[in-house]
Structure formats: structure tokens, C-alpha cells
Amino acid sequence: MNGTNLLDIRDLRVSPRGMTETAILRGVTFSVAPGETLAVVGESGCGKSMASLAVMGLLPPGLERRSGDILFRGEPLPVDDNTAMRKVRGRRIGMVFQEPMAALNPVYTIGHQVAEVILEHEDISAAEARLRVVELLREVGLPSPDRIIDEYPHRLSGGQRQRVVIAMALACKPDLLIADEPTTALDVTVQAQIMRLLKRAQNELGIAIILITHNLGLVAQMADRVVVMYAGHKVEEASVQTLFASPQHPYTQGLLRATPRPGRRRAGGKPLEEIPGMVPAITDPPSGCRFRPRCPRATRECETVHPAVRQVGDTIVACHHPGRLEAVQ
Amino acid sequence: MSYLGKRLVHVVLTVLGIAIINFFLLQLAPGDAADVLAGEAGTADPEYLANLRREFGLDQPMLHQLWAFLQRLFMFDFGYSYRHNMPVSTLIFERIPATLILVGSSIAMALVFGILLGVVAARTAGRLPDKLISLASLLFYATPPFWIGLMMIVVFSVKLGWTPTGGMSDIISNKTGLAYVLDVMRHLALPAITQAVFYLAIYTRLVRAGMLEVLSLEYIRVARAKGISENRIAYHHALRNAIFPLITVAGTNLGAFLGGAVLTETVFSWPGVGRLMFDAMFQRDLNLLLSILVLSSIFVVLVNLAVDLLYALINPTVELR
Amino acid sequence: MPRLVAISRTIFSNWTLALGVLLLLAIILMALSAPYVFPGDPYDMVAPALTWPGTMPEVPLGTDSLGRDIAAGIFHGARVSLMVGFIAVCFALVIGILVGSLAGYYGGWVDDVLMRVTELFQTIPQFMLAIVIIAVLGTSIEAVVMSLGIVSWPTVARLVRSEFLILRERAFVHSCLVIGMSDLRIIFTQILPNALSSITVMSSVLMATAILMESALSFLGFGDPNVITWGTMIGMGRGQIRDAWYIIAIPGAALLITALALNLVGEGLNDALNPRLRKREV
After folding, report:
1. Which of chain A's termini has less CB crowding within 10 Å, N or C?
2. C256, B286: Cβ pair inside 8 Å?
């Protein structure tokens, strides 16, 4: 972790308020370099969304950051100070959420809601803001932006609404965009369009993206680096090529086996496998390694000792028995 | 059929229904309609009664009578009050402004403070301000409003001498212009509060529940991620959406406000329609009573129509077509 | 016996319900004991007029302008308030359940017609309608109960209808239809029991409203002149508002506590019944 990083998250712990023994995030560390795309993957409930909400200072009521630092351009983010964070949200860090159908306020026009970000953070007139909004709507690929600017959200499709949300997130040209499952609720064809839009925006504006997803196909297309999370822990981190070529953690390997991969179909057409079992409840985590109950490689050691993060080749992994599955077998 | 057309048909049907209920209440009364219309202790002149019966077709079959009744209703012909010695319609119309002032100001008060308290309660949910507001609304919801009025007279008029005990203005000092308006407002304060508290309690709970629901929605999270202040999120983003159910409820409560005016106007000798109804009840002037009931109901129907249109205008998700 | 334990555990794990039930029990006890604690006519003069509360041990709550015992009035008034409220709500329940279940079960034009009528009754100012009904029927306790029932049923009808609209789509109703059960049997033996918890919650709030409305009617002097009620006492005390405000304050407080108790019970029941209901659905 060096000084050139845009975002550094160090040993972040998040717990329900007043519950010291349970935790949503149990010491998560990762960083994002300027202009790169970091994918955070894992099943639902593994804490990947919480990390991004913690960065925004928008943890749901009842959850709190217990420890750990969040640095933005080397400076600690004032995540507990709502007033100070307001200057970061929407201006330095934009965010795109999962549910475009619910992400827009039904009683205000598209233009009003996009202009609101600009007027909040920049000292310009409403008329200038409106011109900017039309331009933004055009850039995110909405048809006839000068008409759609005065429409209410219920007249737009899900994909169009997600474009509006992206326009809001990009309106002040942030340094970092957090996209939390941005395409999960959309049709497959629309998914591809939205991802292309994000990629283009990244190239033009030079912003960094944190892409939170459970879709490894998207990761392969979009990401430079990948962080795999399981039950509140980072279990593996590697560049996208390394991760797909030689996944080290059995959970990552399980995820990959459960994902159809174009062009990498094995001879004999091995069927997709799912990882047996479920993500443990946060109130009742297993002892030792959190993944142990579902792990084909679990040993005595895994039952008692929680694996520390270590470097294996180009990969950072938290496992007692890392390595290729074939090698272990 | 267009939205407006549907609503208008609904209004006509409702007014018809009100008239029919009114007609059957008349039939239930002891004696026939002529006795009622003449007023029980008004003129008992048999010739006059016979005349009335012929005029209103009371010797005709029931359907005929209903038709004649409806015709008179649409002509705003409510008969003559011998008690007050003037046509019923004039009698009622004279009293309407006072009631409108009372009901209007109490609804406004209940809405404004209900919204404010509801928003505060929702934003401090589970903490002390919320608990105090919820406790107060629970208490006010259970208190008979006329009793609150009386107790306020004890405190503010009798003990403190701040406000008059009743009436709409000082009769002795013949004030005009601004002085008169201020005088009326001084007289209005207690009755308007009396009318408002019960609904204030309801609206507070409604706004609190609505705000809590809206504040948990995704677009509020999006607004926070945009860097919008909590105040703006509460009042600009959440309240605008939380207020829609309140508008509908307040519209349907209008009838209850008018009914409450009978009590409030009696307690504070406020010279409105409610007080007129109280007097009519004591004089057993059934025709006047029924006329007030019918006119109030029609008023409620029309205001609700206006509220529906307003709702459609301010809520963009309702398409006015 | 274990059932009783379970019920009381539910009650006391929920302070709203506990407080409401305790207050309500106290008022019911007052109502039941009235003829024994105050055997005389509450309209009789028993002590010097306008005795302030706490000044004469014989009349702890004082007397009104005619020397009538206020405590006796409160006890006897509790009987009337509870009875009038209870019967009026029963009356409203019968009409409301009938209308609401037919409308909700059959839907279509039956629903349209019945709901139009229900809306009609909700449009007419309730309190004014109650006054006119009393004017037509005469000032008797029966007329008061009748008028309160007539103005209260639409609330019941709407609730029952909305419950029926949801419940009639459930699998158990479909299986009853398949085995050829009659509509009326399905309505009353299958769907209605499932709607009972919501109806119970509403009834207690409705009873509070009915009691408040009864007190308003008797306050105006439109109640039965032969029975003493809290509203009558407040109405008769108005003349002494300047020098003996306690005559108004005490019955008003009794009303407040009664209505509060019923609202607390309603709210507590809602909290207690609804989560269980949701669990059963899952």
C-alpha cells in the first residue's frame, strides 16, 4: 500500500451497534489505485456492500465502524462526520446502486434530480446546471435528453433510470465511482450497454471504479484487480488474469466452477458445480476458517486457527491450504 | 371514461345517495313530512298543513315524493324556518363563513403541526423527542375535544384572562379593519385549537409512519450518496412523498371536522352552522337539521373532489387522463 | 390453565397492552361495583352543593351545583359509557362484517354497490348524522346506541373487505371451493376467523371513539335524560366553569382514561397479534 493509492481501506471492522462479538466486516484491507477498476466479489451476505457503504459513511442505522482506517488520497476520510462527508459524496466519490427502479424520487423530474448534485457541490446557476444536465444525459446515452430532462422517473425504463443514476454519480466528475451490483436488476442486453457506458466514462474521465458484483463474467470484462470476500473477510486478492488463471482460495475456485466461462469450456463439457452449503449467519460464525464447513480441503488446523492473509506468488490469500485444486487432489 | 368524468359521475351519485338517505330519515320521523317541514311547534294551522301536503305531493306515492324532494333540493329550496322566521337556505348560508373560518383554521393548524411533529418524531425515532411526541399524540387521541375546549377556557380565559370565553368578536367595541381581524383571531384561538388537537394527533402518527417508510427507501439512500443534507432529504425528498396519504385522509376527515364544529361552536358560542344545528336540535326543527346535514354532506363531496384533483396535480405518478 | 398463563405472559411482555388492560379492568370494576358502592340514585342530593373534592370525606370527589355526589356519578357513568360503547360497537360489527365480507368475497358489482353505500355513509358528517338520527328517534339510550352503530359500521366494513380481498386468494379458500363448500360457510367458518384478529384490534379503538362520541352527545344534552353519563355531568357542570371547574375536570379525566385504555389495548393487541399472524402465514 503506497502513497499513490486513491483509496486505502485498512483493517476495517463493522459490527451491529452494541454487539461486540459479532461482525459484518472482520478486518478488511484493500486499496484502489487512480483510474483502475477493482472488483469486489462474493455471495450475497458476505459483506461486500457494507465495505462500500462504510467508505461513503452511509452504513445503515444500527451498524457502526468498530475500527480501521479509510484513507482517500492518503488523507483519512471523516466517515463519522456527516457534514464533512457530504462534501465527498457525489463530488469526490459517486455511487450507483442495485435497484434503478427504486433509485429515483418519484415526485421530481429527472433534470431536477441530476441538477441537484451539481447545485449541491458547485457554485453555478440553475440555468447553467440545466445545460450541464442535458449534456450529461446525452453522454450516458439517453435519447432526446432535452425532452427526457423534464420527465418523471415512472416514464423511464429500468435501464434508462440506471443511466440517470450514473449521470448523477458522474455529474461532478468524481475520482472514484462505486457501482454496487449496477446491472443485477436489468435485462442481459441492457447490462452490457450499462457496463460499456461505465467503461467509456472511466476512460474519458480517468476515474477509478469499485465494482461490487457476484457476476464473475462482468469481472472478467471490466476489472483490473479482484478482491474476493467471504463472511466478512477478504479471502483472496489478485489481478484479474492471475485470479482467473490460478485461483488460490478454495472459495474462489468454487465461485469460478459455478460460473459459465466463455471460451474456457473444458473438454468433456464438465457441468457447472455449486458450492455446497450457505454463507454462515453473522451471529453464528464457525470456528477457525469461516469457509471450513463448505471447504473440500478443510483439516484439523482449519477448525481451530483462523488463516492469516499471506502472499502466494502474485496473489494475496487467506487460506491454510492455498493452491490449485488439482494440485491438492 | 376520463378521470374527471368518472369523478363527476361519482359526485352526482353520492349527492343522490345523500338525498335518498335524507328522504328516508324524514319518513322515519313521527308524523309526515308536512309536520316536519312546518316545524313541530311552528304553525299548526291545519289548512296550511294541507296546503303543504298538496304542494310537496305528500298525497302521492313514495317515488313521486322522492322525485319532488330531489327537485326542491336541486333548486336549493329547503323550506322555511318558522323558528327563525326566514328561509332555511338563507339561515344556513349566513352562518357558513364563521364555520369555514373555524374549520379551515383548525384543519390548517392540524396539518401544519401534525407534519412538523411527525417529521421530528420520525427523524428522532426511538429517542426522547419521538417518545414524547408519541405519548402526547396518544393522549390527545383519547381526549374528548370538547373537554379540552372547556379546560382551556378554565385556564386561559378564567384563570389567566388571556382569551375571551366565547363568541366571534367583541360586540360592544365596534371594531373595523385590522382591529376587527385581530379581534376575531383572538376569539378564534381556543376554538381552533380545540378542533385541531384530535386530528393533530392523528396526522402526527400518520406523517411519522409515512416518513419512516419513505426514509427507508432506496432513493433516499441515493440522495444521501449525492451529498444532500439530512434536512433537505427529510423535507424535500421524504416529506413530499410521505404527505400523499395525509392529503387523502385530511380530505375524508372534513366531515368529521364539520361534525366537531357542532361541539366546538356550542362550547365557544361561535356563531356558525354547528351552533345553528345545536339550536335546531333543541327546538326540534327537524327540517333545519336535515337541511344542514344535506348541505354539509354535499360540501364534503365537493371538497373531496377538489382534493382528489389537487392530489392528481401534485403527484406526478397519477396520470390525469 | 396453561393457556391462561400464556395469555397473561403475552399481556405482560407488552407494556402498552398491560397498562391498557389494567386501566380497562379498573373501569369495568367501577362499572360493576357501582350499585353496591353507591346504592342510591346518582341524581340524588347527598351533601352541600359545590363541595370541593377532598374537603368532605363522605364525598371524596366533591359535589356539583345540586349537591350530587360526583364519585357516584363517575361510577354509574362508567356503566353507561362501557355499555353504550360495547353495544354500539357490536351493532357496527354486525352490519360492517356483513357488508364487508359480502363485498370482499364476491367482488365485482356486489363490491361496487356495497362500497359506494359505505363511502356514502363515510361522506356524511358522522356526528351530524348521529344528531339527526337521535332527533328522529327521540332522546333515549337506545337511540344513542343506534345512532353510534349507524355511524360506526363503515369503518368495520372497509377493514373486513380489505381482509377478505387478501384472504379469499389463499390456498385454503380455493380448496374449500374445490370440495364444494357453500359460499356462506366459507365466509363465516373459513375466512372470517382469519380476519378476527384485525377486527378485534379495530373494535377496541372503535369502542373508544363510540364512547367519546356518546359523551359528546350527552354533553350537548342529546342523550337519555334519565341516565347519568360522564358527558351529561360535564354538560351540567358548564354553568359553574368559573368557580367549580372540578365538576367538568373529573368526568373528563374519566373519559380520557377510558379512551386511553381502549386505545392502548388496541395498539398492544396489534403488536401482539400481528407478528404471530405473519409467522403463521410463512
Report:
1. C
2. no
